Every structure is written in C-alpha cells, then in structure tokens.
Amino acid sequence: MGGWSSLVYDLVVGLGAMVIAFDYRNLGLRFYDLIDRWTPGGGVDPRFSPDVLRVIAGAVGVAVLALAAVRGFDMF
C-alpha cells in the first residue's frame, strides 16, 4: 500500500505545481501573495517575481511528475 500512497502524493504535488506554473485562474499570483504575506521582514525580495515563482513551480512539477511516472512504471 505504501507504493500507491507515494504515487498519489507525487501526482498531487506534481499537478499542483503545474497548476501554479501555468497560472490557472491566477493561482500563481495568489500563491505569490500568500508567500509575500507569510514572509517575515516585510515581504519577498523584489527580484523574486511571480514569473520566477512560476518557473520554479514548473521545474518542480516536471521533476515530481517524472518521479511519479518512474514509480508508476516500477509498480507494474
């Protein structure tokens, strides 16, 4: 059962990161604003723009989805 739970977790995280990367329904901007509110010391660095966040989320999403594909292939 541990294999299925890690596969589902990878799929959820990967798809969530891709949703942020593609900025579906401005979710990337909402997540950026949330990070800005939670960051101590007056917000994030101005060089860290929503576009940078989307690139990072896209890279994480692709990596985690590739990991999920490898785990899924390994299960069968």
Description:
Helix content is 76%, strand content 0%. The protein has helices at 2-21, 27-38, 50-75. Helix 1 (2-21) runs antiparallel to helix 3. It is an all-alpha fold and 76 residues long. The longest helix is centred in the last third of the chain and has 26 residues, at 50-75.
Strand content: under 5%
Pairing-aware structural class of the strands and helices?
mainly alpha
Spatial gap, N to C terminus:
14 Å
Low-pLDDT windows of residues: none
Enumerate how many helices there are, as a single number: 3
Spatial extent as radius of gyration: 15 Å
The average pLDDT value, as a whole number, equals: 90
The run of helices and strands is HHH
Q: How many beta-strand runs?
A: 0
Helix content: over 70%
Q: Main beta sheet: strand number and arrangement?
A: none
Principal-axes shape call: elongated
